[in-house]
From TrEMBL:
Gene3D superfamilies recorded: Endonuclease/exonuclease/phosphatase
Full protein name: Exodeoxyribonuclease III
Keywords, in A-Z order: Hydrolase, Magnesium, Manganese, Metal-binding
CC cofactor: Mn(2+); Mg(2+)
Sites marked Interaction with DNA substrate: 248
Domain Endonuclease/exonuclease/phosphatase residues, every copy: 4-248
Underlying gene: xth
Listed EC numbers: 3.1.11.2
Matches recorded under InterPro entries: AP_endonuc_1, AP_endonuclease_F1_BS, AP_endonuclease_F1_CS, Endo/exonu/phosph_ase_sf, Endo/exonuclease/phosphatase, ExoIII-like
Cofactor: how and how many bound: Probably binds two magnesium or manganese ions per subunit.
Record carries keyword Hydrolase: yes
Taxonomic classification: Bacteria, Pseudomonadati, Bacteroidota, Flavobacteriia, Flavobacteriales
Family indicated by similarity: Belongs to the DNA repair enzymes AP/ExoA family.
CDD domains attached to this UniProt entry: ExoIII-like_AP-endo
SUPFAM superfamilies: DNase I-like
């Protein structure tokens, strides 16, 4: 079972890239972030034509998340992260796909830090920790998937000394991530590749992709029920080099067995 995540950085503007990648790799489940499209503008017909059904939570101009499935019914569980009824940003979506609870998320960037945006990021992280703890109590196979906007360690960032004051790498952000992990989640990439330099994002500026000056900010966190089913994990780095591609590359994992 192949499950992928891809921050598309505009689902309509980069639809040809998305469809090309789906045709090339045919993942079973896909989480998308940063749709940058209101609910009614999601390209459902094109996604269906590629062989996928979808649920999505759109938002005009910014944010937006979606879950696609090729072979299994999607049952939406919720489209808002609990803990703040006034939060209107479209950053979280839960759905059952087969026997796995897929939690697609787009964690706030938080820059500039310190400041209100960074405060929002940390509070969002706290809400995610609360929800994640509750999900573990259900004992349902669960994956937290998406753009976390955090580099957990120095291994996950090119020239970490340049990022010490950035919201994606500040100590408060990394501490929040590690606190989440300590609940019992498994970082899929690091389980298989504990010491390798692996990036999932390359800025458009300063020829970052060509220099491999990247960040690892797109993650799969597996619940205990799934960690021993993990057999492969990979970044489709070449997609970042396609014309008009997102600044993220798709990332995928493979689990042993079927849903």
């Amino acid at each position: 079972m192949k499950i992928a995540t891809y921050n598309v950085n505009g689902v309509n503007g980069r639809l040809p890239v998305l469809l090309r990648w789906l045709e090339e790799t045919r993942p079973d489940v896909v989480c998308l972030q940063e749709l940058k499209a209101p609910q009614e503008k999601f390209p459902e017909q094109a996604i269906n034509g590629a062989g996928y059904q979808a649920v999505w939570h759109g938002q005009k101009s910014w944010n937006g998340v979606a879950i696609l499935s090729k072979n299994h019914e999607i049952k939406e569980i919720g489209r808002a992260l609990p803990g703040d009824a006034e939060d209107v940003q479209s950053r979280y979506l839960e759905a059952m796909v087969g026997g796995i609870l897929i939690c697609c998320l787009y964690l706030p960037n938080g820059n500039p830090a310190p400041g209100p945006k960074f405060d929002y990021k940390l509070k969002w992280f706290e809400r995610l920790q609360d929800r994640a703890k509750k999900l573990l109590e259900f004992k349902t196979p669960t994956i937290l998937i998406g753009d976390f906007n955090v580099m957990p360690t120095e291994l996950d960032v090119y020239k970490p000394e340049r990022w010490v004051d950035d919201a994606l790498f500040r100590p408060e952000t990394r501490t929040a991530f590690h606190t989440l992990m300590e609940q019992g989640w498994t970082d899929a990439i690091r389980k298989l590749y504990p010491t390798e330099v692996i990036y999932t994002f390359w800025d458009y500026f300063r020829t970052a992709y060509g220099r491999n000056a990247g960040l690892r900010i797109d993650h799969f966190l597996l619940s205990p029920e799934l960690k021993d089913k993990l057999v492969e994990a990979k970044v489709d780095k070449h997609v970042r080099g396609w014309e008009k591609s997102s600044d993220h590359a798709p990332v995928w994992i493979e689990l042993r067995g079927d849903l």
